[in-house]
Design a protein that fits this description.
20 strands, five-stranded antiparallel sheet
Length: 233
């Protein structure tokens, strides 16, 4: 599950360099080929194709920022073309991104209300997606031997301040001094307990997810902030 795919692009007609991204939803058919789509996919049954809302922003090599007009992905496998020419030349599954720069990095973001809640109450955000970028360059004035291609895995961009901390069984209790990020989720398959009163600072969001959670001494929250417990106990 990912909320964002991040990767490079390069578009330079002078050296015949072009970039496509390929984004794949491996389980999409299992979620959408039914009367009511199953989470986390949002596309409604009956649409042909079933489209998912997305947004894309990109940066050039000097960090200048712009938003693209890409607003949906409609297939199980989607080819995203940067600029005027395509590497893969897909016909039906192609989406086009217009650019005002030749080289940089881009983020493809999925709807933030796309979530999946498991029977145990665990909440996962984003969509099940994998992807890669493919770039091709061809200096034709040097002959056919000057044809180069490369692929790069699209990665989930780390959101600043967002952390998931997995606790092993029997690990020591959590104290306020460990709450060092703005958005932290502590996860355990055993139990989570605290060492004394827990103080949640302003603008900090903390989540405990475990079969059993024990708050020794309670907690306090400075508004605006949040503290959430997801537990069977």
């Amino acid at each position: 599950m990912s909320q964002t795919l991040h990767g490079p692009f390069s578009v330079n007609p002078a050296i015949e360099t072009y970039t496509d991204w390929v984004g794949t939803f491996p389980t999409k058919g299992l979620h959408t080929d039914r009367t009511v789509p199953l989470p986390p996919f949002l596309g409604s049954y009956g649409a042909n194709p079933v489209c998912e809302p997305v947004s894309m922003q990109y940066w050039d090599r000097e960090e200048a920022h712009a938003n693209s007009t890409l607003n949906q992905l409609c297939y199980g496998v989607n080819v995203i073309r940067f600029g005027s020419s395509s590497v893969l030349d897909a016909l039906r599954t192609k989406q086009i991104v217009s650019l005002n720069t030749q080289n940089g990095q881009a983020d493809l973001s999925f709807a933030y209300n796309a979530t999946l809640t498991t029977p145990g109450g665990y909440v996962y955000q984003g969509l099940p997606v994998i992807g890669f970028a493919i770039k091709r360059s061809n200096n034709s004035f040097m002959g056919s031997a000057a044809d180069y291609s490369s692929t790069t895995l699209l990665t989930k961009k780390v959101i600043e301040g967002s952390q998931r901390i997995f606790l092993s069984a029997g690990q020591q209790g959590i104290s306020s001094s460990q709450l060092t990020g703005k958005d932290m989720t502590f996860i355990s398959t055993d139990r989570i307990y605290t060492d004394g009163p827990l103080q949640i600072s302003q603008d900090v969001n903390i989540t405990f997810m475990a079969p059993s959670v024990t708050l020794n001494g309670g907690f306090s929250v400075s508004i605006p902030a949040s503290f959430r417990v997801v537990s069977n106990d």
